[in-house]
Design a protein that fits this description.
about 120 residues, alpha+beta, HIT family, subunit A, 5-stranded antiparallel sheet, globular
Length: about 120
């Protein structure tokens, strides 16, 4: 496993040659997972083509796993890149967040909600 301290030796759900998947330590919803590269680096935009392909494969594998285990009705998928975007851990990780009908009053705008005043655009 990676030497990144934020992992706390958590169990890998599955992995491939370039990355692995774990549950988020502070989940936004039931089943919230992180897709993490094996190589420790902070900026997603520094990923190699091989890492991007392998991490994307894990995102899809995670979705299938979560579909079977939790039956969510939607997903948010996101990456925080840089302190001003909310990145607090300097090891790339992709959030795969299952969403459930009624988990928020009005989900319109989805990831636009990272800036609350911009979430509603209609």
């Amino acid at each position: 496993m990676s030497d990144s301290p934020f992992l706390d030796n958590r169990e890998k759900l599955f992995e491939n040659s370039k990355g692995f998947v774990i549950y988020d330590k502070f989940p936004v919803s039931e089943g919230h997972c992180l897709v993490i590269p094996q190589r420790v680096y902070s900026n997603y935009f520094d990923s190699t083509e091989e890492e991007i392909a392998a991490l994307n494969q894990l995102v899809f594998e995670t979705k299938l796993f979560l579909d079977e285990k939790y039956q969510p009705s939607g997903y948010n998928v996101g990456i925080n890149c840089g302190e001003d975007a909310g990145q607090t851990v300097n090891h790339v990780h992709i959030h795969v967040i299952p969403r459930y009908k009624g988990d928020v009053t009005n989900p319109e705008g989805g990831v636009r909600g990272v800036i609350p005043d911009k979430q509603k655009y209609t």
